[in-house]
From TrEMBL, chain A:
Name of the protein described by the UniProt record: Periplasmic iron-binding protein
Keywords: Signal
Gene field: afuA
Xref: InterPro entries: SBP
Record PANTHER family: PHOSPHOGLYCERATE TRANSPORT REGULATORY PROTEIN PGTC, THIAMINE-BINDING PERIPLASMIC PROTEIN-RELATED
TrEMBL record, chain B:
Residue span, Histidine kinase domain: 245-457
Organism: Marivita lacus
Gene behind this protein: tctE
PROSITE patterns: HAMP, HIS_KIN
Pfam families assigned to the protein according to its UniProt record, in alphabetical order: 2CSK_N, HATPase_c, HisKA
Annotated compartments: Membrane
PANTHER family per record: SENSOR HISTIDINE KINASE YKOH, SENSOR PROTEIN QSEC
Name of this chain's protein: histidine kinase
């Protein structure tokens, strides 16, 4: 009897684990029995300070933190995986989850104090606003004027194809939900996107799933620049720590600003604790001074005044590019631009 | 006052009721209209959205292609925070969107007309707009059906908000209407209250007709009120006339009877017969006195209705009355002492003479022979007092107030002829002049003091 139980449990766990490609995981043990299960796209080192701060408030609560890709997170929640809180930078996928009824509502004084654009229906709450930036290697750009618009970047790439051949990095939008969001929003907002993609496609671009590796490659000089990286404080700090080898650049013609959002999945059990964590994050999102947190608040970012372009709107329009037909059409076009050998 | 509700309150309640009805009605109508407007707005946006999507339909290499335009959904996001679902299908083959969206199954003409429907999806009520368009796929035109659905939270919240606003306005309207109703009721009842006040301000015997401007609705009431008062006055006057006439008619034959009885008494020898004749004379005296007093009383009642005040010297008045009673006093060897004071009063001389005469008459009648009766006239700050004191036995033990009532006589009246109307007459006269009659037994039963008090005009 005992054995069969265990077997069932193990097989359940196995299917679950196999379904979910976990990138990182940590349990922050608390003094009590209750466990808050958080699924997130944010790296552990970025979120650790937040989780520790929250645990300081509720020491009895254990926090189980799982890091997955945004697509994985979306699949997991849609598939009914049991989590109390889902934090993601892919606001389109988060929105789709909320729209399709996979999120439950949470309402508190803090969430109602959030600006209108930072929440939707008491279901999604934004707690950071982060711009997409270009991370470049100063060494590789030596002697060149730093581009401030996409047009300037295109001109530069055309002028020095040798210098940049194989040294241009960006997201593989087929793998990265965030990359896809950046690409679609940019394609919608500026026609320079396709021109840039064409030019980059001719330079044997390196495609990445995640920003961390891209930044590392820039730091080590393998890449001249990485295009469309999430410019959080973490990237900022990295640039500062690199001793001038890495620099962060915002495009002045147009910049995407995404909102990192939280939802409470319908499967959540510790809804009160999840709500409390959302409140803490939303509170921090509304702080005036940047402070010592790894992620910027909603109101301002350290990277120039890029937020002036305004964040991508949380609304049903986000679902447009998630439509399979649209996605297929967009990816075809993107592949045509990026993969021309 | 018996318990039918006041007209004012009834009028106010009626008007307030009407106001309440109107308030509720207007609230209900505004709420309905607000909901309709919100629904129509949503329908319009849904229609725009679904048409924009349908317009992007095209065929590519025999296949139906579709590119959801960004604006199709962003316009839905702009009107409210509502969930959005969509579905695109050709005939039975599902192309994209939410396959299980309960789209209307009926055949839709491909004329580009938008069909609306309401259903439930994902646990919420949704409004759906469906349009159908023919697209050439290969050689065959196929009909593609596009549906966009949106939950109705925005509609509900807008109409709830407006309904709340309407409710607030309705309540405010109601409150204003109620206070206006109360005001209107009070204003329209004002003439009535004024008439009532005028009537109640009148003295008990003031039966003059009411002369004041009254609204047309109240004119009949005024007329009948005046007619009633007129009739009342007439009947009182005729009753008094009748009493006076009756007294007069009784007195004359009584005088004859008395004269005859005196003659008979003088010629009678038999002691027994004399005794009976004396009793007869006494009874006649009594009747005659009563008739006289009744006549006087009727005069007092009649004259005090509208008092004829004439300025008259106080001493003249007293002296005349005293002179009139001097013979009566002399018969009992009673001395009438007058302590005079100069001054003038505004009174009805006939009535005042009547009052003083009755009081003086009592003093003489209820005093033993060879005593003094003092008439003292004095003036205070606001009143003139004519005090008549005697040296009789006083007023007895009974309540003094009783003695001024009609036909009430004291216990000390054995053998004294009287009707019990004298003090009533005196009191009525004084009250008619705005004064009063004070009666007291002097200390140690050493006599009575009756004081006529008049306000000094
Ligand atoms: N000066 C007085 N001394 C004693 N008793 C008095 C005196 N004046 C009045 N009374 C008492 O008050 C009663 C009422 O007086 P009132 O003058 O009204 O009636 P009356 O004298 O009996 O009859 P009449 O109508 O003939 O005067 C008298 O019957 C008498 O008992
Ligand atoms: Mg008398």
């Amino acid at each position: 009897m005992r054995h069969t139980c265990l077997a069932v449990l193990l097989s359940c766990l196995a299917t679950f684990v196999s379904a979910l490609e976990i990138e990182d995981y940590r349990l922050f043990p608390g003094t009590g029995d209750r466990v808050l299960r958080v699924i997130s796209t944010g790296d552990l080192e970025v979120f650790e300070p937040y989780l520790l701060a929250f645990q300081a408030r509720q020491p009895s609560l254990s926090i189980d933190y799982t890091v997955v890709s945004s697509a994985q997170l979306y699949q997991a929640i849609r598939g009914g995986a049991v989590f109390d809180l889902a934090l993601s930078s892919a606001m389109d996928l988060q929105f789709q989850l909320a729209n399709d009824g996979f999120a439950q509502s949470h309402r508190s004084e803090t969430t109602t104090s959030l600006p209108d654009w930072a929440r939707w229906r008491d279901l999604i709450f934004a707690f950071t606003a982060e711009p997409a930036v270009v991370v470049l290697s100063t060494q590789r750009f030596e002697g060149l004027d730093l581009p401030t618009t996409r047009q300037e970047l295109v001109t530069l790439l055309r002028e020095y194809p040798d210098r940049f051949d194989g040294a241009v990095g960006t997201y593989d939008v087929r793998d990265s939900g965030l990359g896809y969001l950046f690409a679609t929003q940019e394609a919608r907002s500026t026609d320079a996107y396709w021109r840039l993609s064409e030019v980059m496609g001719r330079l044997n671009p390196q495609l990445y799933c995640c920003s961390g590796q891209m930044i590392d490659d820039v730091a080590e000089g393998r890449l001249a620049f990485a295009y469309n990286v999430l410019g959080s404080y973490a990237a900022d700090r990295l640039a500062r720590d690199s001793g001038g080898r890495v620099q962060i650049l915002g495009m002045q013609d147009f910049t995407n600003v995404i909102l990192r959002t939280a939802i409470v999945p319908t499967t959540a059990r510790e809804t009160a604790a999840a709500g409390a964590l959302i409140d803490m994050l939303a509170d921090l999102g509304q702080r005036e001074a940047p402070g010592d947190w790894p992620l910027p608040p909603l109101g301002q970012t350290g990277t120039d005044n890029l937020v002036e372009f305004g964040p991508i709107r949380l609304g049903p329009a986000l679902m447009v590019y998630l439509d399979p037909l649209n996605r297929r059409a967009f990816l075809t076009e993107w592949e045509n631009a990026m993969e021309q050998r | 006052m018996t318990g039918t509700a006041s007209i004012g309150r009834r009028l106010t309640l009626l008007l307030a009721g009407v106001a309440a009805l109107l308030s509720v009605l207007s609230w209900w109508m505004v709420t309905g209209l607000a909901r309709q407007a919100a629904e129509r707005t949503q329908d319009n946006v849904l229609a725009a959205s679904v048409t924009t999507i349908a317009e992007t339909l095209r065929s590519e290499q025999g296949e139906v292609r579709l590119e959801l335009p960004y604006s199709a959904f962003s316009m839905l996001g702009a009107i409210s925070e509502d969930r959005v679902f969509y579905r695109v299908a050709t005939g039975d083959t599902f192309l994209t969107g939410y396959d299980d969206l309960p789209v209307p199954t009926e055949q839709i003409s491909s004329g580009g007309r938008v069909i609306f429907d309401t259903g439930v999806y994902s646990g919420e009520e949704v409004r759906m707009a469906t349009v159908s368009r023919l697209v050439l796929a290969g050689t065959q035109p196929v009909s593609v059906k596009v549906t966009v659905a949106q939950t109705r939270g925005g509609v509900a919240s807008i109409s709830a908000e407006l309904s709340q606003l309407a409710a607030f306005l309705s309540v405010a309207f109601f409150l204003v209407a109620v206070s206006l109703s109360a005001f209107a009721a009070r204003t329209s009842l004002k003439p009535l209250n004024e008439i009532a006040a005028a009537v109640s301000r009148r003295g008990p015997s003031d039966l003059r007709p009411l002369r004041r401007a009254a609204p047309t609705e109240l004119a009949p009431l005024m007329t009948s009120l005046n007619r009633l008062m007129d009739r009342l006055g007439q009947s009182i006057r005729s009753a008094e006339d009748f009493i006076a006439e009756a007294a007069h008619r009784i007195r004359t034959p009584l005088a004859t009877v008395r004269a005859q009885a005196e003659i008979a008494l003088r010629s009678a020898k038999d002691e027994d017969q004399k005794q009976r004749l004396r009793q007869m004379i006494r009874a006649v005296d009594e009747s005659s006195r009563s008739a006289g007093q009744l006549l006087d009383h009727a005069t007092v009642v009649y004259r005090s209705d509208d008092l004829v005040r004439t300025p008259i010297t106080l001493s003249d008045l007293v002296r005349q009355t005293v002179a009139g009673l001097e013979p009566t006093a002399a018969m009992k060897d009673i001395r009438l002492q007058v302590e005079m004071m100069e001054g003038k009063v505004q009174v009805d001389p006939v009535l005042m003479d009547n009052a003083l005469r009755n009081v003086l008459d009592n003093a003489i009648k209820y005093s033993p022979p060879e005593t003094d009766v003092t008439i003292a006239v004095s003036a205070g700050d606001s009143e003139i007092r004519i005090a008549v004191s005697d040296q009789g036995a006083g007023l007895g033990d009974g309540p003094v107030d009783m003695l001024t009532q009609r036909f009430q006589r004291g216990t000390n009246t054995q053998g004294v002829v009287g009707s019990g109307l004298g003090l009533t007459i005196a009191k009525d006269v004084l009250v008619a002049h705005g004064g009063r009659l004070e009666l007291e037994t002097l200390e140690g039963n050493k006599g009575t003091c009756a004081t006529l008090v008049l306000p000094s005009s």
